[in-house]
Amino acid sequence: MNKQEIVAKVGQTIASTLDQPNLRVTTRTTMDDVEGWDSFSHINIVVALESEFGLKFQAAEIAGLRAVGDIVDLIEKRLAKRK
Questions:
Q1: What homologous superfamily does CATH list for 3-81?
Q2: Residue 74: how many CB atoms within 10 A of its CB?
Q3: Are 38 and 17 contacting, i.e. CB atoms less than 8 angstroms apart?
Q4: In a 10 Å sphere around its CB, with 0-12 CB exposed, 13-18 middle and 19+ buried, how is residue 50 labelled?
Q5: How much is the pLDDT for 63?
Q6: Is the whole-model pTM more than 0.90?
Q7: What is the per-residue pLDDT across 28-72, written as a single tens digit (0 to 9) for each?
Q8: Whose CA is closest to 14, among 45, 57, 51, 59?
């Protein structure tokens, strides 16, 4: 899976979790940029992403996720380790 595919899947997962089907995110999008993306929904997004990508994130990793790009980079790195 390449970075563009990861970005698309992350965006779809965030939009679905926040129940905002028309939401479009970029790697620069932060939770402050999206209405309804608070600390509670952030946890729901992380859980949905773990399920979507078959990964399990550590608490320290989750704490460092500030933008969609951070999420994408972490997923890309974790998926590369599985190869």
A1: ACP-like (1.10.1200.10)
A2: 20
A3: no
A4: middle
A5: 87
A6: yes
A7: 999 999 999 999 999 999 999 999 999 999 999 998 898 999 999
A8: 45
